[in-house]
Design goal:
single chain; alpha+beta; 3 helices; 29% strand; YaeB-like fold
């Protein structure tokens, strides 16, 4: 199986600056694993959107998969308490990449 390339939205880079270093290391390891398996155990499709999410501790990683291009776009990373509110707020934003 070919490996997927992972890309980050610019807004995700800003979000990562607020994540504690210990959690950030775990999040990045989890994202690296997506390159080999973009649909790991425990992933879920976000209803009403073409995005998926995986859990990493108290954080959620929201991403989209382009199987035809073998790419994964990390769309949002946030604390479980806030991530879903932010997704609903941006629900009608159809742009995947910035």
């Amino acid at each position: 199986m070919d490996s997927y390339k992972i890309f980050f939205r610019r807004s995700v880079i800003k979000e990562l600056k607020n994540v504690p270093k210990k959690d950030l290391q775990r999040i990045m390891k989890r994202i690296e694993k997506l390159a080999r398996n973009p649909r790991p155990q425990g992933y879920e499709k976000i209803s009403g959107q073409d995005h998926f999410r995986i859990r990493q501790g108290n954080y959620r990683i929201v991403y989209s998969i382009q199987d035809d291009e073998l790419t994964i776009w990390i769309v949002k990373i946030g604390h479980r308490r806030e991530i879903y509110r932010q997704l609903v707020k941006n629900r009608f934003d159809k742009s995947v990449h910035e």
